[in-house]
Amino acid sequence: PAGAVAALRARxxxxxxxxxERTRVGGTCTNTGCVPTRVLAHTARLMRDIRDAHHxxxxxxxxxxxxxxxxxxxxxxxxxxxxxxxxxxxxxxxGAELIISSAEFINPHEIALKETGRTIHADKVILACGGxxxxxxxxxxxxxLLPSDLYTLDKLPRSVVIIGTGATGVQIATVLQxxxxxxxxxxxxxxxxPGEDKDISSxxxxxxxxxxxxxxxGISSIERIExxxxxxxxxxxxxxxxxxxxxxxxxxxxxxxxxxxxGLGLEQAGVxxxxxxxxxxxxxxxxxxxxxxxxxxxxxxxxxxAATYEAQIAAENAVSGAHLRSRHLIVPHGGFTDxxxxxxxxxxxxxxxxxxxxxxxxxxxxxxxxxxxxNRPRGLIKLIVDAKTRQLLGAHAxxxxxxxxxxxxxxxxxxxxxxxxxxAMELAYPTYAxxxxxxxxxxxxxxxxxxxxxxxxxx
Length: 459
Known about the structure:
459 residues, alpha/beta, five-stranded antiparallel β-sheet, four-stranded parallel β-sheet, 21 strands
């Protein structure tokens, strides 16, 4: 997404543009990441709902997953997304040249195309090469699967150990558990899904345990992976100084997302790295004066929506000499787990560090009519508010439809809405989104007196 958006914006600004893509346009999310993962998540959600249908007087047999047919649907959706977005055509129609090749810098202004022997000269370059799944530097790491390897399996393993419980790890855990795979999750952080607000992580962990997933959280280290004679795997990990083992048919590593920096000849271009990513300043300029970067390769905010935003900034600065800054102030995110998790803005811990007197309110799904109607009573939404300005600092949710619900709060954040204005919103009933107003009203006892903008100017 970063490369395509940057190319189109650069063309709109009048630049002559060439896009070099190693394999296929669309990026990780379309081809091997978000899109196929979401297809699997939808498959799992269908299986869950079929199992729950008896609560509504619908009696069906236990659903059976036919893995090959599921993978066929994954590939069908990927191709449908490509046809719908037609990024390659958009790039060419905009007047940019699309080149399928690997590439390497000769110097800051010259790039060699490895397959053709051609050399391209560029006044400015934008790196939008994305990232890739990491492997831990431990003995036997090569025995573990990476997330994209799921789509190459002939059949689902009966048991899996997942190492790492970030966004990818917990989403895949939901998918595999629903499909009948026995799961063990290993995490060195002190809580599941450590990037989420602490209360959100707690509810998700409780749900996972009730679903039969074994959690080992706050472990000291992963020591090694071994192949056993029957073809299964053994993972050795430590809790404190105590070594423990767990066996499974497969091990899945979800332990990070370094940038695709190898093989680009960055040293010839004068581009320096920050850990495993390209180093950029707030204007997305690298350590080379004429080279910018956007998207996952920067390691800053590795989400599709963030990549799109950064691409616009990088193109404007590279082509027009602007000095726009990439800030990532309001970036809603979410995970299609069961229950879903989502957030935007500061977590409670982050907010209390910056605003010690901040206010926190929450509303729970077990009092939300829509959640009771749908038999999804587990969940909550938390709103974090500046005590002085009454404006939102952050919002976090766990529960059915949490990802979509949090988007509405993100709009409020962008509009500098106060907690009182959220409380006065007359949101549709019965919906999941109305929980936003329910939570806000706990901090806004006078919400009925708030003046809202009249519809179409009618008072």
